[in-house]
Structures are given as structure tokens and as C-alpha cells.
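Fill in residues.
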């Protein structure tokens, strides 16, 4: 590797660490990937942090992407299938590139889909425009590892020199991303006890998501596998004047920061704190929708129902009976 190439890589690394500590409001991950693209040309790229539970289930606890199709996660679930990890046997995946990268971390691996015999993997590569792929994996701890992947849609394969450049550059990129995510979380969100944290673009692409958030989203949306926020949440934010989504199991509160959505998430029960009497009022409102009928069913005055509803609205961060009915009807 020549002096000019080495000097160029050093400049990229210095810029990455400097920007990681100053770009706290928008798009550092995208800027970082674009910097890498100068040294290793690619069509699309992704950085994913995986955390594995004791039973081997994989959770995405960090993601950044550049030019990646929104449905790539769904296609991976459909064509690649379930991927698990065991401390004894390692990773179990039909993806040969990810398998090699996890089993031999700390160095770059690549493949060309034309050489893959597995028809489902070949179909996945075709439909996601990743005919040629490069991957680097590094362990974070015994239950967590980070990946950096680059994809090319055409027939141009990654060269040995580009793999060597990746070996030098990608560890610094992953470290800069980790630094930036921690700083963004602390600066934008402060201290959110027992809350999960999600940082996403306005369209729903997730830039940062922590363990608590992944668990709560999976509980709320059992089929959710993507690095895109569920459509119901995005629609809920757009339709709500208070920028809050109230689901069956979770509550999400949105705050906008430049181009980003900064979201706190907690269990619904922890956030709502409705009294037993208020819970009964909610149930009757959803059932009958009429103050007088609710009052008759509960054997209380209409004014009592109205006062209780005002308390419920305040606790749940909503402003009308229609919002309440819509929210609770969608959960059942």
C-alpha cells in the first residue's frame, strides 16, 4: 500500500473522529459512510450492531445505512431466514459472508453472488442489488458484535487491496460511530430513566436504537424486523398534535431535532398511571362513545365522567375523545 493511499486513509480517520464529536444533530453516520466511499467505492452500505439474548435471538441495537432499500430487512427475513447465535456453536445463518465474518472477526471478507450455490442467497443478492459484498465484523462483548458491510449492484468485485484498506479503515469507522451515538444520546436526550431511546430520520430510517427500545418494539409489533420504524408509529406521529404514539404495550414520545426524530419509549403501564376508575371510564368510552351512556353504565354524573376524561387526556398526552377511542381501539 503506497504512501499516498496511507496518507489519504489517515486523513479520513482524523476527520471521522473530529466529526464524531461535533456532529450531534444530523447525519454523522451517513457522512461517515460517504467518507469511506472515497477509499472503497460501493453502491450501498450498512452498519449494524447485533445483540444476542441468552436463547440466541438477535436484536438490532444500532443501524446506519446509505442507499439501502427500505425493504431490505424484510427481504432478508424472507429469503435468508432466522439467524441465531450460540456461545457454543457460534452463528447459525445461511448467509456465507456473515457466517465467515462472525467466525473470523477482525478482518474483511467478501463474496460474489455468482459463486454462491444457495438459490435463496442468490435471489436475496439480486433483489437487494448486492451482487458483490464486503463485510467486516468486530465483537463488542460476549453477546454483541458490530458489522460494516458494503454492496455493489454490478459485476465489479472487491479487490484484495480494497479488503486490505477495509481492514485498516473500518475499525476506526465503527469506533467513531459508537462515540457519536453515545454523545448524541446524552446531549439530545439527557437522563431518561427506564426509557428506551430511538433516533430516526423523518421517514422512519433508524440511526440509533437501544436494547430497551428493540424489546418494546418487538413486544408491540411481533413481526417487526426492520431498521425502519413501524408504519403505524410514523402515521401516529403525523396525525397526533402532541407527537405521541400510545400502543398496546408501549408509549412513544417524539421530539424533533433538525432532520431527526428523537424518540423516547417506555412501557404503556409505566407511562399512563391511570387509576382503576379511569381505566373503567376508558373502557366504557371505547365501548359506547357517549358521555351520558358512560355515566349511566358507571352510575356517576356526566360531570364526573368529563372530569375523569380530562385527567386521562393529560396523563396520556392526548386532547380529544376521538384520539382516545382511536388509540385504545387499535390495541384490542
Amino acid at each position: 500500500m503506497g504512501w499516498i493511499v496511507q496518507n489519504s486513509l489517515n486523513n479520513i480517520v482524523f476527520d471521522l473522529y473530529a466529526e464524531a464529536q461535533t456532529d450531534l444533530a444530523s447525519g454523522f453516520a451517513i457522512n461517515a459512510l460517504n467518507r469511506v466511499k472515497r477509499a472503497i467505492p460501493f453502491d450501498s452500505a450498512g452498519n449494524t450492531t447485533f445483540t444476542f439474548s441468552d436463547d440466541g435471538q438477535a436484536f438490532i441495537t444500532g443501524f446506519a445505512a446509505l442507499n439501502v432499500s427500505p425493504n431490505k430487512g424484510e427481504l432478508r427475513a424472507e429469503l435468508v431466514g432466522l439467524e441465531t447465535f450460540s456461545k457454543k456453536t457460534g452463528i447459525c445463518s445461511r448467509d456465507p459472508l456473515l457466517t465467515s465474518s462472525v467466525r473470523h472477526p477482525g478482518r474483511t471478507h467478501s463474496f460474489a453472488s455468482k459463486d454462491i450455490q444457495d438459490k435463496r442467497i442468490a435471489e436475496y443478492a439480486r433483489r437487494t442489488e448486492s451482487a458483490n459484498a464486503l463485510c467486516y465484523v468486530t465483537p463488542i462483548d460476549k453477546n454483541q458484535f458490530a458489522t460494516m458491510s458494503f454492496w455493489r449492484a454490478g459485476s465489479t468485485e472487491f479487490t484484495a487491496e480494497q479488503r486490505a484498506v477495509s481492514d485498516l479503515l473500518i475499525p476506526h469507522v465503527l469506533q467513531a460511530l459508537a462515540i457519536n451515538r453515545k454523545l448524541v444520546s446524552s446531549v439530545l436526550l439527557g437522563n431518561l430513566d427506564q426509557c428506551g431511546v430511538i433516533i430516526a430520520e423523518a421517514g422512519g430510517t433508524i440511526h440509533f436504537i437501544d436494547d430497551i427500545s428493540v424489546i418494546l418494539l418487538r413486544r408491540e409489533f411481533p413481526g417487526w424486523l426492520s431498521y425502519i420504524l413501524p408504519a403505524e408509529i410514523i402515521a401516529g406521529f403525523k396525525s397526533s398534535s402532541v407527537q405521541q404514539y400510545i400502543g398496546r404495550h408501549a408509549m412513544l414520545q417524539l421530539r424533533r431535532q433538525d432532520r431527526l426524530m428523537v424518540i423516547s419509549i417506555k412501557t404503556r403501564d409505566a407511562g399512563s398511571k391511570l387509576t382503576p376508575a379511569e381505566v373503567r371510564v376508558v373502557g366504557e368510552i371505547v365501548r359506547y362513545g357517549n358521555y351520558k351512556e358512560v355515566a349511566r353504565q358507571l352510575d356517576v354524573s356526566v360531570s364526573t365522567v368529563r372530569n375523569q376524561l380530562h385527567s386521562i387526556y393529560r396523563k396520556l398526552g392526548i386532547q380529544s375523545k376521538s384520539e382516545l377511542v382511536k388509540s385504545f381501539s387499535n390495541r384490542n
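The mean pLDDT is 82.
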